[in-house]
Design brief:
223 residues; alpha+beta; 5-stranded antiparallel beta sheet
């Protein structure tokens, strides 16, 4: 019986750790400030800062912006900046990326896209201003649209290699934008699907294994 319980525990551990963990934060509807009447408003320019590891939202630049994985959304989401520890997926490779070039911007990546080391991630602290396009007939691919939720993919430095994640937000060119959710893999090098969150089936399977062990223990006591 002990061997059965041990098998249940080992199965649970291997199930939960074999492919690492996906960490997910539901941010609710965090407003990204945009003061249309006064674009120079300091609040408008600062926007929000999101720490992707713990879901912290700040409204002024954190001192750890370049040492921890922070992402800055400002001007209703029309502007995005990143520090050295977090690098968004861009329309061109890191060496070529120039935010002043119209065709260089952070991509709106489709749900179900695989994020891994093959992505074109920027090389360090930079900014994106050209990622917003029209709802129809956009001459440039994979841009965000005002009033529609999109997904930003990124790589972040774990200290032991890059891991990957995504952030969903809705830019707004006529008022405040919204940031909704984020998720990341905690395992360096592991691929992650855009839109992926921890599966309820995962927790159900682990609960089932625990229940099996409890039932076996109870049968032993009754016998």
């Amino acid at each position: 019986m002990k061997s059965l319980l041990a098998s249940c525990v080992c199965a649970a551990l291997s199930f939960s750790t074999a492919s690492g963990a996906i960490v997910h934060f539901d941010l609710g509807s965090v407003e990204i400030p945009r003061n249309v009447s006064d674009p120079s408003d300091p609040v408008n320019l600062a926007g929000i800062y999101i720490n992707i590891l713990d879901g912290t939202v700040a409204y002024s630049a954190p001192t750890s912006f370049n040492t921890a994985p922070w992402l800055n959304l400002f001007a209703g989401g029309l502007g995005i900046s990143n520090g050295d520890a977090l690098r968004p997926w861009a329309s061109v490779d890191a060496v070529s990326y120039d935010p002043d070039t119209e065709t260089h911007y952070f991509l709106n990546v489709a749900v179900g896209t695989l994020i891994n080391e093959t992505g074109q991630f920027v090389g360090g602290e930079t900014v994106s201003f050209n990622h917003l396009g029209p709802a129809v007939d956009d001459p440039l691919p994979h841009r965000f649209v005002s009033g529609m939720t999109g997904y930003l993919a990124f790589a972040y430095d774990t200290g032991a290699g890059d891991a990957f994640g995504w952030l969903s937000f809705m830019p707004n060119d006529s008022g405040p934008g919204m940031s909704f959710a984020l998720a990341y893999s905690d395992t360096p090098g592991e691929s992650l699907l855009v839109g992926a969150i921890p599966e309820p089936a995962t927790f159900a399977a682990l609960a089932g294994l625990a229940g099996l062990g409890f039932a076996a223990t109870r049968r032993r006591r009754l016998s």
